[in-house]
Amino acid sequence: MHFIYLEGGSGASTPVPPEMIRAVKQYAEVPLLVGGGIRTKESALAAATAGADIIVTGNIVETKDSNQKVAEIINGLKKASRRIE
Question: H or E stretch including 6?
Fold first, then answer.
């Protein structure tokens, strides 16, 4: 396998729980992608902090304010990664 993808479901009401992401990441030797239900910078940060290497946002880009929402997620992750370094 070249990667593992944890998917909460297209348009999921809640994202994959951080506990599940941590459990999979503990044993994964390949990049871990996580998607489904990630609509806010908080949920993206929770997934990244739990071990997601890549965050997948799908349905969020179909909303009328998608540029703003995606920018908030990206900026939130960038700020968090600077604090960790």
Answer: strand 4-7
pLDDT at 80 over 80: no
Burial of 36 (0-12, 13-18, 19+ CB in 10 A): buried
Note the pLDDT tens digit of each residue in 10-42. 878 899 999 999 999 999 999 999 999 998 899
Q: Are 37 and 12 contacting, i.e. CB atoms less than 8 angstroms apart?
A: yes
Q: Cα–Cα distances in Å, from 82 out to 21, 32, 59?
A: 22, 21, 27
Which element (helix H / strand E) includes 13? none
Residue 20: both structure tokens together: 């599940």
